[in-house]
Specification:
Structural class: mainly alpha
Number of helices: 5
Helix content: 55-70%
Shape: globular
Strand content: under 5%
Largest sheet: none
Number of strands: 0
Amino acid sequence: MKPSSYSPHYDKLRTWMKQKREESGLSLRAVADIVGRHHSVVGKMEQDRRKIELMEFVAYCEAIGADPHEGLSIILSKC
């Protein structure tokens, strides 16, 4: 299988990311301030409009208090 940032695995990851951010009570702008990126970058990561870079993903998880291992397990699991 050819990897793609638009595969169903990433759809599930993006859904998980947004859910975890909302559970943390943080807005896109608040997360963006924490990770030092523009809020549009964070929004595009959640909305399937931007590739998710590994280190940005880890920083995002740290900002919202989520375990990056949990998110990675979503990508590794079968659809």
